[in-house]
Amino acid sequence: MANEETVGAVRTLAHAAREIAIAGAAAGVDAVLRDLLSLVDEDEGRPIGILSQDPEHAGTPARRIDALAQAAAKDGAERKWLELKQALAGQVQNVVYVGEESGAQTQLILPRTLVIRFDPLDGTTNAINILNSFASVVSVDVITNTNGEARHLAGAILGGEVDVSWIHWSRRGQHSVGYSKPLGRVFVRSMRIETGWRHLEVSQEERDVHSVASVAANSRRFTAFGPFRDEIFANGGVVYHSAGNPFCAALLLGHVGAFVETQNVTMHDSVYLIPHWLLGGRIETLDYQPFDYIGQYERHAVDFSPRSKPIPPYIAYVGASNPLKDRKIASELRNSGEVKSPPRRQVFREED
Length: 352
Fold this sequence. Notes:
Layout: H1 7-36, H2 64-84, E1 94-99, E2 113-122, H3 124-130, E3 135-143, E4 150-158, E5 163-168, E6 184-189, E7 198-200, E8 211-213, H4 219-224, H5 226-234, E9 238-240, H6 248-252, E10 258-261, H7 273-278, E11 282-284, H8 293-299, E12 314-317, H9 327-336, E13 348-350
Parallel strand pairs: 1-2, 8-9, 8-10
Antiparallel strand pairs: 2-3, 3-4, 4-5, 5-6, 6-7, 7-13, 10-12, 11-12
Helix pairs in contact: 1-2
């Protein structure tokens, strides 16, 4: 893989990585739901003990449910890896597991190492308080050479009404370190109505330009989001104060015009930007400059510190123009008298 293997070889590995990501994320969701509903009692092996705290842990302090989800997600991913290990022997020689609850890891990373990155409970506060609006997130990368360069392969975000998974096989330009264009597939499913995985073929032009979402659950975030919120409200738009991985399907399907992140964040908190990018979605900095998220992600793929936040504030949006700076859109919203969603064509087909 040091010489950019054929697209076929990369796709084969990406498909396997997606299976691993789905297995890990699904196990994480199961562990969260079982703990929330107390389906596992002491007689069935429910762990009892004191939860140690990693001083490097980002965000709010970890809870017992986080540790249970982490263990379950790792176990689920590892079982799937062992199933696939023999078939992937020519492409993968080692696997490392990295999680927000795992602490920083110092280790030698060899070429052809799979890096399986977890956040098995993104939205702990939501899960505990409202039993909803959380996600289990797993992404998989492969180290391609002795310099520690990485290629992102696949990922999964499970736990909401609509699950999301994806594979990535973009190729770098001959004289460029970046990818010439996004190549991959994004899949969605509903567990509630048992749709199975479907290949998402949504036109990013079909969007609700008047709606914007941002995580604004505390005073700092709420204040930082203020100018964007005021701009949308002034033009008759709608604002949601929840965003990120648990709500990524809304962005991918075009039901929300933009997600705004006002703070530096971790890679696992922002990984939904990869399927967004694969579908042609745009990502900009807060001063409206293009942001190469996949490049930033891959450059930090071997940074295993849970405290690391290499992703700067950004705006992710669908369509050809940023709804927060497009004055034509603002004018249309102001003069429309009412806000309507654009018509939508069928956007799914069965997975092939």
